[in-house]
Automatic annotation (TrEMBL):
Alphabetized NCBIfam families for the sequence: IV_pilin_GFxxxE
Signal peptide (from-to): none
Name under which the protein is recorded: Type II secretion system protein H
Subcellular localization(s) per the UniProt record: Cell inner membrane
GO cellular component terms, semicolon-separated: plasma membrane; type II protein secretion system complex
Region listing for Disordered, in residue ranges: 177-196
Keyword terms of this UniProt record: Cell inner membrane, Cell membrane, Membrane, Methylation, Transmembrane, Transmembrane helix
Transmembrane parts of this sequence: 20-41
InterPro entries assigned: N_methyl_site, Pilin-like, T2SS_GspH
């Protein structure tokens, strides 16, 4: 008899798993959690993209200034269209040395006689990058040759509160913007909110 009941248990093993009701409740809970977390996740992704772009611009400008000081030549930063600087700052940004120290020669890249130091890829399609000047030229002293103080403003589409920027002083120093008044928005050194 004991042998018979043991054989019966082996023929009908207990099946473990989820019922359809348990499965639907589990899916509903996961869906609810995703719906709650999604806006924060999107904002985190945009914030990471903005931080990365601002850091890249900051490093690009530091590389240009250091190259000017080390090479003893003017160094230009601009969006190149062919071999001439344009004013579309949303495109690829190029850093190159200049053989001649005249402003006219600093607005064009001569691949035969000048060195292309660094290139930054264009920004995300829907975002905006603006710069307050037409061109950036560092002299061998590290100071700006072109214009005066300059401001980059990077604004992600649909998230204006996450806008950030980079500023260049006439002395050639480069500063990233920060939230100086704890309102959740980056401010320029003058205290105004970064915007495009």
């Amino acid at each position: 008899m004991f042998k018979l009941s043991l054989q019966k248990q082996q023929l009908n093993p207990i099946v473990k798993g989820f019922t359809i009701t348990e499965l639907l409740i589990g899916i509903a809970i996961v869906g609810l959690l995703v719906a709650i977390a999604s806006p924060s996740l999107n904002q985190f992704i945009v914030q990471s993209r903005v931080d990365n772009e601002v850091s890249e611009i900051h490093r690009l400008l530091l590389a240009a200034r250091n190259s000017a000081i080390n090479s003893g030549k003017n160094v230009t930063v601009c969006p190149l269209k062919g071999t001439t600087c344009s004013t579309d700052w949303q495109q690829e940004l190029s850093v190159f040395t200049n053989n001649a120290s005249t402003l006219a020669n600093n607005k064009a890249f001569d691949s035969a006689n000048e060195e292309l130091i660094k290139v930054k890829s264009k920004i995300s399609e829907n975002d905006t990058l603006k710069f307050s000047q037409n061109i950036i030229i560092f002299s061998p002293t590290g100071r700006l040759v072109s214009g005066g103080n300059g401001k980059f403003s990077y604004c992600p589409k649909g998230y204006s509160d996450l806008s950030r920027g980079v500023e260049i002083s006439l002395s050639g120093r480069v500063y990233a913007t920060s939230d100086s008044n704890n309102d959740g928005k980056d401010n320029n050194r003058s205290g105004t909110v970064v915007s495009c």
